[in-house]
Amino acid sequence: MALLNFKRRDASASPSVNPAVEAFLRDYSIEVMPRTAEKVEDFRSLLPEGTRVYIAHIEGTPIQEMVATAKRLNEDGFAVMPHFPARIIKDRDTLKDWIARYQGEANVSQALLLAGGVDSRHGDFDSSMQLMETGLFDEAGFKRLHVAGHPEGNRDIDADGSMKNVSAALRWKNDFQSRTDAQLAIATQFAFDAKPIIKWADGIAAEGITLPVHIGIAGPAKLQTLIKFAIACGVGPSLKVLQKRAMDVTKLLLPYEPMDVVSQLADHKAANPDFNVTHVHFFPLGGIKTNANWAIENGGSSATPANA
């Protein structure tokens, strides 16, 4: 393996780095797709060794492209976590085949399970819970399973705008962890306002859900790009943060950076160490390199421990 080119910024020599933010960004993860990964010549020059890299499986992406991306990232020293979107998986045999390919060809042993952003299922599965109930991940030795979280709700699951079904699903998954030896965590949709995130995280903790939360954060990007993705992904109340910014002519053309939401969450975490948001998960909507550089500049490092 080639020597790691990544150089972490020395926070002690950079007074502008907020210590709370630096601590909050520690062990962050990031998401890629095969088609965007192809454009990156060397991930080791962008990300610290050991960074957990999720591979998003968009409808229509051949499984061989997913596995090839996973193999490349694994060989480069990253902890690979591919998506398994239930609604695009035809049947149990297909799921078993995917697991075997990831494990045998790319040495993958962890996965993000989610319903998937398609209107109707393509086969037997409709939810991540059904994938978990097959027992196939346990049989293959996949002990770390992440599941989706929605701090601002999900209209595809709760059409009335409530949290009834998404909350029931989280309670089921919390129980699944308690009755199995699986290690679960919640990886959330991105949001732009810390207040609803904190309210949601405190709310699920009050319900007895003990799964750690890896909070989704949209990386630096053009404002228009973020608004487009936010609307497409059903981001709720915190979309107003972007809309308000778009009304300010002085900020309209400036790239969005997530410092406000990250620093507020970091400060809350510093003041409340038991806060269940334990990690940051970046959606690099403005590009992987741009996102990685922003994390470096703000003291972010990543060497994901096995139990995170």
Count of strand segments: 8
Which architecture per CATH? Alpha-Beta Barrel
Structural class of the helices, strands and pairings?
A: alpha/beta
Tally of discrete structural domains: 1
Evaluate the radius of gyration. Answer: 19 Å
Number of helices: 13
- Weakly predicted, low-confidence segments: 1-14
CATH topology (level 3) name? TIM Barrel
Give the helices and strands as they follow along the chain.
HEHEHEHEHHEHEHEHHHHEH
Notes on the protein architecture:
With 308 residues, the protein is an alpha/beta fold. The chain has one domain: TIM Barrel, CATH 3.20.20. Helices cover 40% and strands 15% of the residues. It contains 13 helices and eight strands. The chain has helices at 19-25, 34-37, 63-75, 92-106, 128-133, 136-139, 164-179, 194-206, 223-232, 239-246, 249-252, 259-271, 288-297, and strands at residues 29-32, 52-55, 79-85, 110-114, 144-149, 183-190, 213-218, 277-283. An eight-stranded parallel β-barrel has the order 1-2-3-4-5-6-7-8. α1 crosses α12. The longest helix is centred in the middle third of the chain and has 16 residues, at 164-179. The model is unreliable at 1-14 (pLDDT under 50).
